[in-house]
Amino acid sequence: MNSQQKYLQDLKQWLHETSDSPLEEMSDFFTKRLDGYEEHMSVWEKSYRLFAQALPSGCQEILDLGCGTGLELDHIWQKDPDIKVTGVDLCQSMLDKLLEKHSDKHLTTVCQDYFQYDFGYGVWDAVVSFESLHHFLPEGKRELYRKIYHGLKKGGVFLLGDYIACCDEEEELLRSVYLKKRKQSPIPDNHFVHFDIPLTLEHESRLLQDAGFIIKKVRNNPDNATIIIASS
Ligand SMILES: C[S@@+](CC[C@H](N)C(=O)[O-])C[C@H]1O[C@@H](n2cnc3c(N)ncnc32)[C@H](O)[C@@H]1O
Question: What lines the ligand 1 site, CB under 6 Å?
Answer without folding.
Answer: 26-27, 30, 41, 66-69, 71-72, 88-91, 94, 113-115, 130-132, 135, 192
